[in-house]
Amino acid sequence: MNFQELVKVPFGTKSLDAVLSVPASVKDVQTAVILTHGAGGDMNFKHLVSLAHALTSDGLVCLRFTCKGLNLGYRVKAYNAVRDYLRTLVRFELKNIFFGGRSMGCRAAAALARQLSDVSEHAVQGVICLSFPLHPPGKKHTHLQRSEDLKMLPECVRVLFVSGTEDNMCNRGLFNEVLKDMKADAEVFWLQGGSHGLTVKGMSEDSVMDEVNLKILQWIKKPVD
Asked: What is the C-alpha to C-alpha distance for residues 194 and 200, in angstroms, rounded to an integer?
């Protein structure tokens, strides 16, 4: 049985609401994943809750948090506060930390991963990008600015993108050009028929989430050369 604990993460003079999900046995836990939501919603977005459950069921720790700010710099600072909090939890001997997020949340995750990697190549092992928002709908010209952090991630950081083929915020042709310019070890899981919300016509939401969660778990556990 997995355990969930509501926690308050210190953030300046404020605090961030978060949920710490822990596997039944913490004896051999070495890997943790931090997750956050997009511009709308919160940490209880159904896909994040589903992924957190899948991670802990497989023996990983998951810390997901809410940050309502729409300024990317603010989001990055909040993400860093959550990372700092995770590192203070002495009951875990964590060797691997993965950052993850959905839409704007994964932009913040990638930006922080780049900043930390400038200081230490061991700060973060990988970034999970659910529906990376390469551009707003109909505004493809913004993709250069939004992809800057991705292109600056070093080779030592792994990146998994999970995107729908029908995502109106991630033109596939432009995205493939970004991938060519990335130094990081990037992998893409294209969800056939998937929207920006990772919904697929004719598929139940649970079926989609099961498929996505399995791919993420396989990617995290994949041996690194």
From this structure: 5
The domain segmentation of the chain, as residue ranges, is 3-221
Closest CA to 34 of 8, 66, 57, 6: 66
3-221 is a CATH 3.30.300.20 domain: no
Could you tell me which of 48, 44, 33 has the C-alpha nearest to residue 79? 33
CA separation for the pair 175, 123 (Å, rounded): 26
Question: Does residue 112 or residue 122 have the better pLDDT?
Answer: 112
Question: What does DSSP assign to residue 171?
Answer: -
Residues pairing with 208 in the sheet? none
Q: Which sign does the torsion angle of CA 143, 146, 149, 150 carry? A: negative
Phi, psi of 222, rounded to the nearest 5 degrees: -65, 130
- Over the stretch 1-59, which tens digit does the pLDDT of each residue have? 679 999 999 999 999 999 999 998 877 899 999 999 999 899 999 999 999 999 999 99
Q: How many CA within 13 A on the CB side of residue 39?
A: 11
Mean pLDDT of all residues in the chain?
95
